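Below is how a single chain appears once it has passed through the pipeline. First comes the sequence as given, then the structure the pipeline wrote out for it. We keep one example in the README because the format questions we get most often are answered faster by looking than by reading.
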Amino acid sequence: MFHIFFCVNELYARQLRVCMASVLENNRGADFAFHVLSRDLSDAAKKKISKLKICYKNFSVDYALPDEKLFDGLKLNINYISMDTYFRFAIADMFPEIKVGLYLDADLVCNGDMTELFAVNIDGFYAAGVSDLYIDHIDYKPKIGFERDELYVNAGVLLFNLEKIRKDKMTQKLFDAVKNNEIKFQDQDGLNIAFRSNVWRLDGKYNLTTSDYNADRSLLLEAKIIHFNGTKKPWDGADADARVKIWEKYAKIDEAIQNAYPIFFFLLPLFLARFFWSVKQFLYFLR
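Resulting structure:
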């Protein structure tokens, strides 16, 4: 069983489903437990997520909410990122039975086998992630005390060693890193500061960001996870490049699943009428 965590609000309910569908579509031979941390995800949104069971049987999903008081006063300085993104700080303590878990942002899709990512050995590390090219481009690391050649990872895809985070009591250090430093990138800065020098570098194919794609579009050929970070999103009318078309493919899968029940109930009376007519004809000929 592979554990995947999401931290979302109601505004990202559709994107969450598309992300889940992409994981399940490309990993039909694996079993997943999806854990959704949210303060406002509606019953209607949860019902739509459950409809994924029409097509995929290899997953479970649960919903949880951490103590919101823990997040009072945390910095919010990116207008399109909500407080919910900080909820990942609490994952290790909220799920004490889970040793390793993958965190995914909802603005991404999986486009390949995910099981090999879970096989990465992160013993001795708090997490594994992909280096953030955008952070390098804007020369941000020195502003938070990092050397320019130090690893700073994008937080949209993180394989957490939850067991080690608990053992070393790192949860409070994550909160302290945000509260005690002048930061720009919210929880991402907090994670990099608290876990500094204890993050394993993942292959870039596990988090192809917008900056990565713009720098070298050929990277899309090998990408296992495609991340639409930044302000331009495929569901908001972003230019229809090759990345966007991949997102649209999984969005169409979700759309087909969401429309499956109405079609089924419309066709069911027709099917039953035809079935009983056939039975009646069969019995007639037996007389």
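The longest helix spans residues 260-286.

See the next section for the split statistics.
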